[in-house]
Amino acid sequence: MTWQSEMDELRRRESLAEELGGPERVKRQHAGGRMTIRERIAKLVDAGTFHEVGKIAGKATYDAANDLETFTPSNFVFGRAKVDGRPVVVGGDDFTVRGGSADATIKEKHLQCETMAHELRLPLIRLVEGSGGGGSVKTIETTGRANVPGVSGWEWVVANIGTVPRVALGLGSVAGLGAAHLAAAHYSVMIKDLSALFVAGPPVVERLGQKLTKNELGGWEIQLKAGAVDDAVDTEEEAFARVRGFLSYLPSSIDEVAPRGPRDDDPARRVDWLMDAIPRDIRKPYKMRPIVEAVVDAGSFFEIAPLYGRSVITGLARLDGWPVAVMASDPFFYGGAWAADTCQKVERFVDTAQTFHLPVFYLVDCPGFLIGLDAERTGTIKQGVRAMSAIWQTTIPWCSVIVRNCFGVAGAAHRNGGRYCTRYAWPSGRWGSLPLEGGIEAAYRAEIDAAPDPRVKMAEIEERLTKLRSPFRSAETFWIEEIVDPRDTRRLLCEWAELAAPRRRPGPSEHRMRP
Predict the structure, then answer these.
(1) What's the rounded Cα separation, in Å, for the pair 307 and 467?
(2) Which CATH number fits domain 272-503: 3.40.50.720, 1.10.1740.10, 3.40.50.300, 3.90.226.10?
(3) What's the predicted TM-score (pTM) here?
(4) What rounded mean pLDDT belongs to the chain?
(5) Phi, psi of 388 (to 5 degrees)
(6) Three-state DSSP state, 354
(7) Predicted pLDDT at 149
(8) 85 burial class (0-12, 13-18, 19+ CB within 10 angstroms)?
(9) Helix or strand or coil: residue 160?
């Protein structure tokens, strides 16, 4: 007597699970230019490493003899795998089975996916399509009742965002709970022209009198500019590559620190053109991204949220192999001034760096908070206070390089002012309570109005104050610690990264990150 009959039944059910929603629905998925969930997992993880959990969970019917008659697998597939040799947890929606909605969901699978990542301290990758196991109006009919809204297991999502790297990919139309899962990630990606994200889709929104296509309502350009999603690429394969790239900079959890990466770029490499990178004309912008790429390890800059809060560039990089978080002002947007969305971007980015013990370096060119009616309407100062507080709550190593402007309250947020920060300034650095431009007329109004030629008097005052504002005058009184040759910036940053590495402390942060 053997157990072969039970093994045959197991293999039969596994085969049924692998059929997903059936040939016609799989064909429809492919016709829409999208992979199935099993194809996606196979492309994302290292070959042969996916170990599925709960494969034969689903909804079954039985005949009079109590033998299996029909079987519909759960529309969520998850398990453990390896990505670039490191263990991860990966889970994704099967859109071929009821569009990923609640009607075909085994909620316990979603819950165990989150708890597995949390308890094993493994990065979690969520592949989202449809409602992510959320509701459907058909649920009322299938269950015979209406449910009071509740999200089973959301406490684990909140716990994971402060514990393990959580990455989410929007791989089709994503709404409701699926949209929440996509937004609740340290890094999120959409597929251009194939993905859309919304709280509710076009048919529901049309009831408000807004007739919109999926892309018009929640396409990648909408969501990247809104900050709901970080990145968008052309294909699913590119999205998987971006996930692998992002995870390469992070530890598996807060209980570790990110390991040192390749050391194939000379830390003493001198970048001669940096000497002329900042124009003498203070009204003239310049391109900051080439400066970032020049000082970090070649090819290592991984930008995050490029279309959101655009006066600050954020991303990950390496300095002589050490993973670091990068902030850099972009004078092409508001001259580098912090708008409300910039402040929100900075807060979230700094919280991520703090959570995973990544040292931060910041290339500063900030004339202050954005001013004007729009800035007041969007509550810039309130969002600015939150960003400043996030910076002041950091315990990670921090290095600031003032390349041009550093003014006002937002300028003060170039470091945690309550603890030590390595700080350098280029000779092009300018700082103060506020820029001279626009402030002279207010401060010297009486003197200018009384002068025979107000324009001459204005120029005279400006020249006098400009000389007093020289960075060398600040260095005399130690208001700035070091003025450096811009060409030496890479060497100095690599030295800082080497010194910072032992100061990274694994474990939870006092200030817990939220989704």
Answers:
(1) 38
(2) 3.90.226.10
(3) 0.91
(4) 91
(5) -60, -45
(6) helix
(7) 64
(8) exposed
(9) helix
